[in-house]
Specification:
The protein is an alpha/beta fold and about 240 residues long. The chain has 7 helices and 7 strands. The protein has one domain (about 1-230): 3-Layer(aba) Sandwich (Rossmann fold). Strand 4, helix 6 (about 140-150) and strand 5 form a beta-alpha-beta unit. It is globular, with a radius of gyration of 17 Å. The termini are far apart.
């Protein structure tokens, strides 16, 4: 019975892995093709990344977890800020690129080639957790968020960007199972008692960050939250 439950809950992950292996192998840089990709200057980034970098710097270096790390741009920036970073990524091709790109920037990332739903999170207690563009590939978001919270320190910062249902998932992305959240849904309810450092809806935003797809739009829920607002300097 347990094996059947796992198959139902995570059976879509091989399709996701195959999709991203192909995308990452087909392009030298699938994400973050701009020259600001590794900049730790908040002014070089959009509001979500600027807020994350500002909060991460003010809270001080610690241990960070980057789930669904892609090619590692977020993880590398956190490492440049002095964090010890665990990057979890289902694509083996992406994991090789994370390690290669990190070396080119003179930092080290601990890379784990595993699905985020089943990776062992007990290896550390995390001060900062980033879930950027990965939760919409997770069917049971509540379970995943509980696991992440259990692996976080009491005053951890969590940063989330997830597809919302405000616009349909683009056909290019719907070739694999995708589970966007509704506005006011599972993700936001999970963090309703946390201090919000950023909380935004992006609806119908034209996508331009990755190659190989035709013109399409995304809608996102984006938030950065903490149970203790270290960014305000009141710790």
């Amino acid at each position: 019975m347990a094996e059947n439950v796992v198959t139902v809950a995570f059976g879509h992950m091989p399709k996701v892995r195959t999709f991203f292996d192909w995308q990452y192998a087909s392009h030298e840089r699938y994400w973050w093709r701009g020259e600001n990709r590794y900049s730790i200057d908040p002014t070089a980034h959009t509001e979500f990344y600027a807020t994350l970098l500002t909060v991460a710097a003010r809270c001080g270096s610690g241990v960070a977890l980057d789930l669904g790390a892609g090619e590692g741009a977020d993880a590398i920036r956190l490492a440049k800020l002095g964090y010890k970073v665990d990057a979890v990524e289902v694509s083996a091709v992406a994991c090789e690129k994370i390690e290669r790109f990190a070396r080119s920037q003179g930092v080290r990332i601990n890379v784990h080639n595993e699905p985020m739903e089943t990776v062992d999170l007990s290896r550390s207690s995390y001060d900062l957790v980033l879930m950027n563009g990965c939760l919409h590939y997770v069917r049971d978001k509540s379970r995943m968020l509980r696991r992440v919270r259990a692996a976080s320190v009491a005053d951890a910062v969590h940063a989330v960007a997830v597809f919302s249902t405000s616009t349909p998932v683009p056909a290019e992305h719907a070739v694999v199972p995708v589970f966007p959240d509704v506005e006011g849904g599972v993700v936001e309810r999970f963090y309703q008692d946390w201090d919000m450092l950023l909380h935004a809806y992006q609806r119908g935003r034209r996508e331009h960050s990755h190659p190989g797809f035709g013109p399409h739009v995304h809608s996102h829920i984006k938030l950065i939250a903490t149970r203790k607002t270290c960014a305000a300097g009141d710790q």
